[in-house]
Design a protein that fits this description.
The chain has 238 residues and is of the alpha+beta class. The chain has 5 helices and 4 strands; from the N terminus they run ββααααββα.
Length: 238
């Protein structure tokens, strides 16, 4: 919901036809309430951003230690984003928007500029601990419960209806049919339900939006409700 509007006065006034005009800008504050699949998409994006940031930092510090040319942002983008997506180890980077990955490189540039200031030093690697602490703080602020699950939990491989694990799937597969029970599942919604179950939360598998038949995945921005309405994943009271 929109927050309180704030008016920002610019110090300079304009004079038009002898009339003094004070220029003002309105700024709106919004609070977002992502649903289960959107939270999963955001967590995936944050994790990829952290990986690209750390990879770029290692590349630059390795070059510095070896006395080599400092890698430019464009070169890092090609190596650590474009080319990395083609490898088995970093193929999952293709699951998130390239915009946020590019922004992580710009953030690293800003960190290096800040590091030139006295007593600041070089940038440090971003850790999962940093993200977990931020999540804990946000949960406490909004009276939510923070629950941590294992990083290798196969949430995109296990059917949230019957629990059968049928292995990894290509990144372009957004909807899949369980080999055990025949349920047709949305990949993101199914993963969100599995995450909740792994965290020990009571979740009804029937609320995982099982579809009656295969439907082509929609090409929309990550985090945008697919039907224009909030999606309930089945975590009541959270």
């Amino acid at each position: 919901m929109p927050g309180r509007d704030r008016v920002v006065h610019r110090p300079d006034a304009l004079s038009v036809a002898g009339i003094t005009v004070i220029v003002m800008q309105l700024r709106y504050s919004f609070r977002l309430y992502p649903n289960g699949p959107q939270r999963a998409a955001l967590a995936r994006a944050f994790g990829c951003v952290r990986v690209v940031y750390n990879d770029a930092l290692r590349a630059r510090e390795t070059a510095r230690a070896a006395g080599e040319v400092f890698p430019k942002t464009g070169d890092l983008s090609k190596l650590l984003i474009t080319e990395a997506k083609k490898t088995e180890e970093r193929a999952w980077l293709a699951e998130v928007s390239a915009v946020v990955l590019q922004q992580s490189l710009r953030d690293l540039d800003a960190a290096y500029r800040k590091g030139k200031r006295p007593r600041m030093g070089a940038p440090r690697l971003k850790s999962r601990k940093d993200y977990r602490q931020a999540a804990r703080d946000k949960a406490a602020k909004f009276s939510r419960r923070f629950v941590r699950i294992g990083r290798f939990e196969p949430t995109s491989q296990v059917c949230s209806v019957c629990g059968v694990k049928d292995g990894p799937k290509p990144l372009h597969v957004r909807i899949w049919e369980c080999e055990g029970c025949g349920a047709v599942l949305d990949r993101d919604v199914n993963a969100a339900v599995d995450v909740a179950k792994a965290a020990g939360l009571a979740v009804s598998a029937c609320r995982a939006q099982v579809r009656p038949g295969p439907i082509p995945a929609q090409r929309v921005e990550a985090g945008t409700p697919r039907d224009g309405q909030p999606t309930v994943v089945g975590i009541p009271g959270t």
